[in-house]
Amino acid sequence: MRRRIALLVAATTTLVLVAFLIPLAVLVRTVAFDRAVNTATTEAQALTSVVGTADRSTLELSVQRANAQGRFPLTVFLADGTRLGAEAARTPAVRLADRGRSLTVDTGDGVAVLVSVGDSSGGRAVIRSAVGERELLRGVHRAWLLLAGLGVVLLGLSVLVADRLARSLVRPTKELSDVSHRLANGELEARARIESPPEMREVATALNHLAGRIRELLAAEREHVADLSHRLRTPLMSLRLDAEALRDRSESERITEHVDTLQRAVTRIIEQAGKRGATRTSPPGCDAVAVVSERVDFWSVLAEDTEREMRVDIARGPLRVAVEASELADCVDALLGNVFAHTEDGVGFDVRLFAAEGAVRLVVADDGAGFDESELAGDPLHRGASGSGSSGLGLDIVRRAAGDSGGSVTLGSGARGGARVVVDFGVPEV
């Protein structure tokens, strides 16, 4: 916007300067021309009295003195054909002036001023004053340069003033943009200044109201999540007591471990809800090899129980990713959970983890029926979108984890015709 305003003012100022300076430049040239011609005419007329009264020798001395002191060469053509003074031809213009008519004519390299006067013998004499092109333009070029410099200075001043004015207009908009970006990054304390033009003041007030409303909604959400933790505490405690009361010790430990896992998951959800709305920073990152290996070991027991072939290919670590370990674990659980939930028992699957160009790639592909057209048309990567009757939250967890790290998720078909999910995780900046 600043640039556009500056360009507009520059264009307008240029048009105004051209409209004024060109006629002024022409006027300067005309004034210089008239001044030179008038000076030449004055010098020529100064000899009229001498030509009309003095004798030949006196007239000749007077012409020589005038040529020595004057700016323009003078020539006197007498009635008897004698020429005194500077070299000059008796042109048709001189013969015309010899008839008693004074005039100014163009000579090609300047002008000649011809003054007709009666001489002492009673005949007609012509006084010729020659003005060269250089004399006609004396001071014109310097005046033009001054006018051009003045135009440049005025143009620069106008652009500078326009830029200052545009900055005062753009600054409130830039501040509003900065505040909106800070709010988007979780700085809920950011507020826009109200000291601005009336139009911007209304926008700033609305933005501040929106920021306050967002803060209230997030506070209410945190309260709801905290209430959820208290509501789940009693059922989880009952499950733990029931598990510990089992006679089968191994069965009791297994169920207790599941209860502990559920309790940790609930605690992690509460912690993440508490962090929501805080200023975003670069994720601390984790070793993807360690996290994926641990979750694969967890799911391998269920794969064995359901007679599934689990083909695992995990590169040697460490492979750092810009995702917290808990988020990466949730991502792996969501992908493997989908395999178990949407394929029949006995259907095998692949889990691969390796370093890609600028990312760490996790590939989960099963040997089932794969995605059908309706599922892909429903965009299953978005929250709540599922064509198989599920909640549609699993792939959304994967999408958000990959997106927060600067990566992406791709859905397709595997080599055996089943569903294939490719997740690229960004790597932490060094």
From TrEMBL:
Residues 167-219 form the HAMP domain. It catalyses: ATP + protein L-histidine = ADP + protein N-phospho-L-histidine. Pfam families: HAMP (PF00672), HATPase_c (PF02518), HisKA (PF00512). The keyword NADP does not apply. Residues 227-429 form the Histidine kinase domain. Its EC number is 2.7.13.3. PROSITE patterns: HAMP (PS50885), HIS_KIN (PS50109). SMART domains: HAMP, HATPase_c, HisKA. The chain crosses the membrane at residues 143-162. GO terms for cellular component: plasma membrane. The keyword Kinase applies. SUPFAM superfamilies: ATPase domain of HSP90 chaperone/DNA topoisomerase II/histidine kinase, HAMP domain-like, Homodimeric domain of signal transducing histidine kinase. Its cofactor is Mg(2+); Mn(2+). It is an enzyme of class 2 (transferase). It is a multi-pass membrane protein. Keywords: ATP-binding, Cell membrane, Hydrolase, Kinase, Magnesium, Manganese, Membrane, Nucleotide-binding, Phosphoprotein, Protein phosphatase, Stress response, Transferase, Transmembrane, Transmembrane helix, Two-component regulatory system, Virulence. GO terms for molecular function: ATP binding; phosphoprotein phosphatase activity; phosphorelay sensor kinase activity. It is found in: Cell membrane. It comes from the Bacteria. InterPro entries: 2C_sensor_his_kinase, HAMP_dom, HATPase_C_sf, HATPase_dom, His_kinase_dom, HisK_dim/P_dom, HisK_dim/P_sf, Sig_transdc_His_kin-like_C. PANTHER family: SENSOR PROTEIN CREC (PTHR44936). This is Signal transduction histidine-protein kinase/phosphatase MprB. It comes from Actinopolyspora erythraea.
